[in-house]
Amino acid sequence: MAIFGLLRLAPGDAADLLLPDDATDEQVAETREAWGLDRPIWIQYGQFLSNLARFDLGESYRYRAPVFELIGERLPATLELSFYALLLAVVVAVPLGVLAALKKGKTVDAVVSVVAVSGVSAPSFWVGILLVLFFSGYLNLFPSSGQLPYGVTVPEITGFVTLDALLSGSWDALYEGFRYLALPALTLALAMIGIISRITRASVIDAGQEEHVFTAVAKGMSRRAIVRRHLLPNAAIPVVTIIGLELGALISGSIIVEVVFSWPGIGTLLFQAISVRDMPLTTGIVASYTIIFITLNLLIDIFYVFVDPRLRGSKG
Amino acid sequence: MTPHTANAADSPAAAEPPVISARNLSLFVRDGRKRIRIVSDVSFDIARGEFFALVGESGSGKTMMARAIMRLLPKRMLEIEGELSFSGVPLTDLPEARMRGLRGGAISMIFQEPMTSLDPLMQIGRQIEETMEVHSDLRRKERQERVEQLLSEVRFDAPAKVARMYPNELSGGMRQRAMIAMALANNPKLLIADEPTTALDVTIQREVMEIIQRLREKHDLSVLFISHDLSLVHQYADRVGVLYAGMLMECGDERDVIGSSAHPYTAALLNCAPRRRIDGERRQGIPGVVPSPLNWETGCRFRDRCKYADAKCAAAPVPVTELKAGWFTRCIRPLS
Amino acid sequence: MKLDLLNLKFLLGASMLSFVLFLALFGSWLTPFDPNRQNLLASLLPPLTDGHILGTDHLGRDILARIISGAKVSLAIAASVVLISGVVGVLVGALSGYLRGTPDLITQKVVESFWAFPPILLAIAILAFFGQSLANVILALTIQRWIPYSRITRAQAMVLRSLAYVEASKVMGGGLGWIMRRHILPNLMASAVIVATFSMATAILAEASLSFLGLGVPPQIATWGGMLAEGRSYITRAWWLAVMPGLGIFITVLALNLLGDWLRDQFDPKKNLNLT
């Protein structure tokens, strides 16, 4: 689909953005030459593309290491955090949304709607700080920054701390890993809970108005069985669509949450790269985020084909 | 008013109560605090094995009648007044749990829109099986066998294959046949068919009607057929009820009602049926529109559109007249 | 019940928003302090001490005064972003939906390629490469925000163009400009206002996020997000530094979201406008 076209467009834009960097320094002129920024744009673009194809994103000024490697080291932490946050959000928000839809117009519905609109309105960096204030400052329950305490390590198998801890049987590290995940994952999840629960509510209500639900009533099925077997499966499709659309928000949210909790992912790395104006690293990270975003959207498209028989090759 | 029963004495199943018996039945829909009467004072019977057609323009309340019999809408949305019973069992106050036992069991229903009345995410076979899961304790294997048997009864050549298909892989006519198979799964006594062929092509219409007709004969099934297609009604119905603005204007044997309509509305309806065009007559719609339930007045509700109407028609509620055994009309000057 | 909840949304949203607007417009008369005046002797004062209603920050600046001046900045940026993106988005959407054909194809491609970036990332990239300035912040926030407008108005314009009275106007020789002004744009206003309300909420959030990351307007200007970022380091000693500006963001965004909900329920009961 069009996504492949976009994949080709995206790095082009990033390369464009490299050009007008005119923080006038002698260094900049030097870098320009070193990075070929004085050459015509299409050559740069071609070079950028060919480099990208070889997974060569250049070298970071600051870390004196290949950008690709730096990103590779930090990426698992970002993915891990996002995964748990999304999981938490779905586990909380979907039942809330279903409940609100089934009790439409009742008190539960109103409460869920208040929770949802507050969740959407609260800036995640503020929520993060409030959670830190309460859970680590006041209750001293969860740590406020980092991924693992000093001295605790896990053998690197996949790069994902909790998975590695599980695989290697380091139970202490597993426990600590989750303790460190708790607040950032919760913060990131809260932002999504509002959106997902609202959409779930709307989808369940829509699905309830479909005519085949009438058929199910006419079959003599109980309300509960109808909800479980006909309503929810049909409501799931738009919910997944919206979760797909919200992946962008998840990514943006994760950058900020990583910074708040000093989470060692690519969001924090991006923040650092920008503050020292490390352009190759910044470009590389922006490109990586974009590629992740596009890949996730592709995965969602593939998911549909599995769930929705209408999208499989049909004769009707 | 006079209680008018069907020609019970002539019926072969005289000892048995009619499958459906409605007496002075009124329906109300609730919209917030408003309570609107949408069907008033309707009485009719459907005997065992009878094909009863309820005809009328859209907005006449015929679909609501079907939904009331199935109690498809919760009481807070659709209220029922008067008597309504199924094989002698009063339906109006039946607890919801027992009503559920009837729905899809002894009473089943097919709908107007075959394209949307099947769950798009579930295989046809599973959807038919589901009806049996609710009403019988057949095992999985037996249910699957029954599904194939039902699908071949509605003339699918490869029932096993169809059972594994999803609704989007079937055409509209095929879906409606699958709906019929589903409706027959638990050997119902009554099949309610709410405009089952309206959304289909004429050739497929015929096919679906033939299937209903054949199954009805085979299983001694009563059919409540809701339609505005008088040519279908003429072809298949034993008895006909003509509903207009929530009132039963005429009710009787198909021969009488369609053959020599007593009520001007029935006559007008017949006059604009497409079938008549073949006879060279010009098709003419009935001038005017069905009055909305919000502005029903005393007197005949058809009078504004009736070419025979005069002041008397507006004066008082029109009583039901029995023209002959089992043939009733709600007109002060019946045409025959 | 349903009606009550709806009215409640309006009442809450409208009163909170008026409160914020009032603070932003007239707030400078409420507090005698200069938002940028440092006083190291009076740093980190808790709320309600020495006339500092919300306390002072690490440089002894009055937090209320800074929140008020931050409100002006936030609201001004968000309003200009919403205005620019609204005008661009509605025009693009209305034209491409009305004209169809090649112009539509081109705008759809542009929309898709902008949409390929996760929202805030594009803004971050722009500010990182172009440098920080008020204009760049507005550009960075506008660059994707016109898309929801154009999507919705395009869909509506496509419906409108085939309506009888629009066709009639065309047949009678109405020019493109005339038809747009007369028939298309007025009909798009309701949805544009709804999108604008939600968009204002997200613009405020996004601006605050950028400032929080140090990518917003130059640091010498007080902004809610910037105050939060500074206050973060003092969170254990002086919670009010970070909590108060965050509360400002929360109240403003909540008010806008409530009003947006209310508007949508008024004009679009079917909730077709899910894009926020």
Written account of the structure:
- The complex is a heterotrimer of chains A (316), B (336) and C (276).
- With 316 residues, chain A is mainly alpha-helical.
- Chain A has 13 helices and no strands.
- The radius of gyration of chain A is 23 Å and the shape is globular.
- Chain B is an alpha/beta fold.
- Chain B is 31% helix and 23% strand.
- Chain B is built from eleven helices and twelve strands.
- The model of chain B is unreliable at 1-13 and 276-282 (pLDDT under 50).
- Chain C has nine helices and no strands.
- Chain C has helices at 2-26, 63-99, 101-115, 119-130, 134-161, 164-171, 176-212, 224-232, 240-267.
- Chains A and C meet through α1, α5, α6, α11 and α12 of A and α3, α4, α7, α8 and α9 of C.
Please give a quick description of this structure.
Chain A contains 13 helices and no strands. By secondary structure, chain A is mainly alpha-helical.
Tag the structure with descriptive keywords.
heterotrimer, A: 316 residues, mainly alpha, MetI-like fold, 13 helices, 74% helix, globular, B: 336 residues, alpha/beta, Rossmann fold, MetI-like_sf (chain A), cell membrane (chain A), transport (chain A), BPD_transp_1_N (chain A)
